[in-house]
Amino acid sequence: MMVEKYGKSKYRRVLLKLSGETMRNARTGQSIDPHIVGNVAKSIKAGRSMGSQMAIVIGGGNIFRGGTGQAHGIDRNTGDYMGMLATVINALALQDALEKNGIDTRVQTAIEMKQVAEPFIRRRAIRHLEKGRVVIFAGGTGNPYFTTDSAAALRANEINADVLLKATKVDGVYNRDPMKDSSAKKYMKISYHKALVDTLRIMDSAAFSLCMENNIPIVVFDFFKDGNIQRVLAGERIGTLISN
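RESULT FIELD:
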């Protein structure tokens, strides 16, 4: 039914970047809300039904952020590793929800922990995707001082993704915060260069540079609006496209 409504995906392989906050219940403060995670899994299933191979990078900010730890006296390196472990927890929760929705899923981590996930191996990840499995990349890049945005850009390049989809709670990129300024202008399309020059803070500069140098377009869109992931995959002009 989803394919009939939205058509076949225009992308062969996509990398979906989810923040850890995607899983949080803002009302109750629950870090991982099973109902919310289940809805995220259903949206991913709907998008995958359109024919794209789908990989996911997930953050850990709903549990722990390295920068927050540093502000409270935790060593930056230690805090970043704690944040990487938080992404593994989120990845396992999302894997469970996807498999309950009938989606064969693998978790690969940049930090080796064989009891719970596979180590990241590029060729194995691509093979999983070719077999129709969803692959969730956790553990960031495996190194401190890099964000999960950088991890998303890195993995998108490594698996030869056609597009990086950045899932957010807003409907695109604005020149100013639309929640604070009603005159804020939304960009339908913007170049990497302009986004960097205007310091729009869509992703960090390392992530942007990786995508720019390898010509991987980024689409920033409202993941939580019903049907939006299918619209993006179908090529509809929603959200903001960042490209060369």
